[in-house]
Amino acid sequence: MNQCTPDIERSEEQDVFLPAVKSIPISMLKQNGLLQALAEEASGLTEADPSEEVLRAQEEWEALEAIQSGTADNSASPVTLISFNEALQYFQTADLTECRKRIQPTMQRRGLSAVAHFFFGPPRLHQQLQAERDLAFVIAQCGLDNNEKVHMRILQTIYKKLTGSRFGCPRYGAHWEELGFQGLDPGTDLRGTGMLSLMQVLYFVMDPQTFLLAQDIFKLSQHSTQNFPFCVMSVNITRIVIQVLREERLSRECNRRHQVIAVLNDLYVAMFLHLYYTWKTQHKTISDSGFVLKGTFSLHLFCCSKG
After folding, report:
1. Which residues form the ELMO domain (predicted)?
2. Residue ranges of the domains in the chain?
3. What digits encode the pLDDT tens for the residues 255-280?
4. Cβ–Cβ under 8 Å, residues 208 and 227
């Protein structure tokens, strides 16, 4: 049963993302072509998204190797990698009635605020896209559930992709702090963002166009002086994404692309890229995190308002 949350130095030749940011306006980061160009510049080759069969075959082989070598962790059952699309399909078909009851897709405006929004605010989201928008809010209301296999596969996939580990890990433990969660249980850091925050990290690490960037950001988060909690930072970015969606600032872009969740993911990646660039080039430390997040938020509010 799904639970609902209450309230919601890599080498120089490898640091390939920074020049791209200098020469391209942040407002263009929402476009798919830029994210693809960044990845192609990094690797010289854009890989195809692995099929479900390839992912499962790889995991089954690694599980067999673990058993034969005796390195398998008995405290964590074997879990196969999960793609973003498979995870999304799960949420599209799961019974999330209780979570759906708690969503607030748009801001409640009254009086002059409502009148001003009607005449001067962003366009309304097309009716055919409202169900997809609502799904994003439903996922954000869905808490991490140990009894849901898909939830556990999402968590394990994030761990394996970020750490490069060939094997899974226990549900609880200090290894989650190494990824940038605050404690031994990642579920306690998802307040207000629920499974949507994990879904956005999953997209980040499983999409070949963004994976190298995710690796670079995670490596910077482990820096001796510029370190920061990667996953906590990610949750905060997802929280901003949710706020921007609720304020209807993404409606124009969603209407143009006839998509919602893909737009949310692109905004998430764009914000993380901007934060990474600022953090690395301006030599920020954890004491600057609030300032950097606020600056990232303000900049992207401006970009969204310009469509």
Report:
1. 150-304
2. 15-103+120-305
3. 999 999 999 999 999 999 999 999 99
4. no
